[in-house]
Specification:
Elements lengths: L1 E5 L2 E4 L4 E8 L7 E7 L6 E6 L6 E3 L7 E6 L4 E6 L8 E8 L18 E2 L3 E6 L1
Parallel strand pairs: 2-11
Antiparallel strand pairs: 1-3, 3-8, 4-5, 4-9, 5-6, 7-8, 9-10, 9-11
Length: 128
C-alpha cells in the first residue's frame, strides 16, 4: 500500500496539530496502522498504533494522554491528533502500515520491522 502523510507544520508549544495519512493501492482495512517519528540526531521511534477496526490503540508513554490515533476505513486515512505539543515533539512523523497479526488482542506492532509500508514523512516543528 502507498502512504502519503501530510499536516505537519510549525506550532507553538502547547498548541495542536492533526496529521493525516492517506493510503492507496491496497485494502486499507487489512492493515494495522502506526505513526513513528524521528527527531534530529535521533533514531526513529514508535508513537502510536491502531488496529484494523480502529477500536484498539496503543501509545508510546511520552505521548499518551496528549496524542490520539484514529482511522477512517471509508476514507482510507489514519490520523494523529496531537495536543499539548512541546519542543521535544519536534520530529519528522511517518505513517506506516502493518500486515502482522497477533494471537492476542492486546499485542500491537510497535517496532519498525513489524511494518511493511511507509509514507514519506511530514515535519512537525514545535517552537518554545
Amino acid at each position: 500500500v502507498q502512504l502519503q502523510a501530510f499536516g505537519g507544520g510549525v506550532v507553538q508549544a502547547g498548541g495542536s496539530l492533526r496529521l493525516s495519512c492517506a493510503a492507496s493501492g491496497g485494502t486499507f482495512s487489512n492493515y494495522a496502522m502506526g505513526w513513528f517519528r524521528q527527531a534530529p540526531g535521533k533514531e526513529r521511534e514508535f508513537v502510536a498504533t491502531v488496529n484494523r477496526s480502529g477500536r484498539n490503540t496503543n501509545y508510546e508513554l511520552s505521548v499518551k494522554g496528549r496524542f490520539t490515533i484514529s482511522r477512517d476505513n471509508a476514507k482510507n486515512t489514519v490520523y494523529l491528533q496531537m495536543n499539548g505539543l512541546t519542543p521535544e515533539d519536534t520530529a519528522v512523523y511517518y505513517c506506516a502500515a502493518s500486515t502482522k497479526r497477533y494471537a492476542s488482542s492486546t499485542s500491537y506492532p510497535v517496532h519498525e520491522w513489524e511494518y511493511n509500508d511507509w509514507g514519506q514523512g511530514t515535519l512537525v516543528t514545535v517552537s518554545s
